[in-house]
């Protein structure tokens, strides 16, 4: 390693990363907990103000959801943190993370526990408040380096990643413009393995409007929305294969046994492996809606989108992975990777044409459950990996 890299790694030793994780994870910041997100945004504003540049809390873009009765209603989100540093520097990067968790305000998993095995169990410790501590500490080490003047960057921490980044997608796309590379701080696996290629995702709500009637006296005059929704589910499930998985997840609707149900909402998740799979999925949706509406004499409205495109490992991403691996080897780390069906903001960044490694956060596991844990020793380890990677990009001008 160069002297600048060794100096940066040495500076990580006294950083209060664990203190940050413990304090931040004690705040419930489930995506729908606006008060908790506001508290979390304030804590992050205080912490990230240690970096130079212009920091702002950006209002969320409008977003909506389909209720069980078929109404489309607006959804409120928390504000997103955006920090811009040296926007005219010759080398520009993007660093992203999220402040929200999957645990709502009334979830029983609220406590942070330090364990004797060197882990911390708590909501968001791995996903991704540990990652935010790693990001901040790595950037502070970079700022103390003589190479800092070559590097301009933006830090984006959104409040809605866990539900699809619907109110921050445009902000991500804008922040990605002109960047040579991006790092996102989702957790690595417990053994340090990174996520490589990712599939995409699309979530749809199909609103079926039939006609009510008495189930015994005149059922033929009714149009059963539940039956139509079930037919839709079967047709869409049959579209799986060739890099596309389909999960009809829920049907809302129905009522008393003696009434032909006039309303139903089918919720479906699609996981396309590539852009061709998205095209096939969209064609399947369009065809099923047309055929079921005609055959059941109902009206169907489709709401939703493929909000996270697939993220292949292209030449730019391959170069960035190679650089991260090189930095890891120089730090005594073996950095592996594997493809995953999970999605994150790395999908959105890659769709903007920017190479991204999106699991630069802590090592941990059991995320999205009450067993979620972070490995404490991975805090300085992963901060060092980030700092060396960033400094090499600053020096070379590219991954």
- Determine the mean pLDDT: 97
Helix content: 25-40%
Count structural domains. 2
Structural class category: alpha+beta
Low-pLDDT parts are none
Which H/E pattern describes the elements? HHHEEEEEEEHEHEEEHEEHEHEHEEEH
- How big is the Rg? 23 Å
Q: Name the strands of the widest sheet in spatial order.
A: 1-4-8-5-9-16
* CATH superfamily descriptor of the largest domain: Zn peptidases
Keywords:
18 strands, Alpha-Beta Plaits, Aminopeptidase, single chain, 399 residues, 10 helices, 2 domains, Peptidase_M20_dimer, six-stranded mixed sheet, alpha+beta, four-stranded antiparallel sheet, metal ion binding
Brief overview:
With 399 residues, the protein is α+β, with helices and mostly antiparallel strands. It folds into two domains: 3-199 and 311-396, Zn peptidases (Aminopeptidase); 201-307, Alpha-Beta Plaits, CATH 3.30.70.360. The chain contains ten helices and 18 strands.
């Amino acid at each position: 390693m160069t002297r600048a890299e060794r100096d940066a790694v040495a500076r990580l030793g006294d950083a209060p990363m664990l203190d940050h994780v413990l304090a931040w994870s004690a705040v419930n910041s489930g995506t729908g907990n606006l008060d908790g997100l506001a508290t979390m945004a304030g804590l992050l504003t205080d912490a990230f103000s240690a970096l130079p540049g212009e920091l702002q809390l950006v209002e969320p873009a409008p977003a909506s959801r389909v209720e069980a009765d078929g109404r489309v209603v607006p959804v409120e989100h928390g504000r997103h943190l955006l920090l811009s540093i040296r926007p005219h520097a010759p080398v520009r990067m993007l660093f992203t993370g999220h402040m929200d968790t999957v645990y709502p305000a009334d979830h029983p998993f609220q406590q942070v526990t330090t364990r004797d095995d060197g882990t911390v169990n708590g909501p968001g410790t791995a996903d991704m408040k540990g990652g935010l501590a790693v990001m901040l500490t790595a950037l502070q080490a970079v700022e103390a380096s003589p190479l800092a003047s070559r590097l301009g960057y933006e830090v984006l921490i959104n409040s809605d990643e866990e539900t699809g980044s619907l109110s921050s997608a445009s902000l991500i796309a804008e922040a990605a413009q002109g960047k040579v590379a991006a790092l996102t701080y989702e957790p690595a696996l417990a053994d340090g393995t990174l996520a490589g290629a990712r599939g995409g995702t699309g979530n749809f709500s199909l609103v079926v409007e039939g006609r009510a009637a008495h189930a015994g006296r005149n059922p033929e005059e009714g149009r059963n929305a539940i039956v139509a929704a079930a037919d839709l589910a079967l047709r869409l499930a049959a579209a799986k294969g060739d890099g596309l998985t389909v999960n009809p997840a829920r049907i809302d609707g129905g009522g008393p046994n003696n009434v032909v149900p006039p309303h139903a909402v089918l919720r479906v998740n699609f996981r396309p492996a590539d852009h061709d799979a998205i095209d096939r999925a969209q064609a399947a949706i369009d065809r099923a809606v047309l055929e079921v509406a005609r055959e059941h004499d109902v009206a169907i409205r489709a709401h939703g989108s493929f909000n996270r495109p697939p993220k292949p490992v292209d030449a730019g991403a391959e170069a960035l992975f190679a650089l991260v691996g090189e930095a890891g080897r120089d730090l005594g780390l073996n950095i592996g990777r594997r493809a995953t069906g999970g999605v994150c903001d790395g999908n959105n960044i890659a769709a903007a044409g920017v190479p991204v490694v999106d699991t630069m956060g802590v090592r941990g596991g059991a995320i999205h459950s009450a067993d979620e844990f972070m490995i404490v020793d991975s805090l300085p380890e992963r901060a060092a990996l980030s700092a060396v990677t960033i400094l090499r990009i600053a020096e070379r001008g590219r991954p």
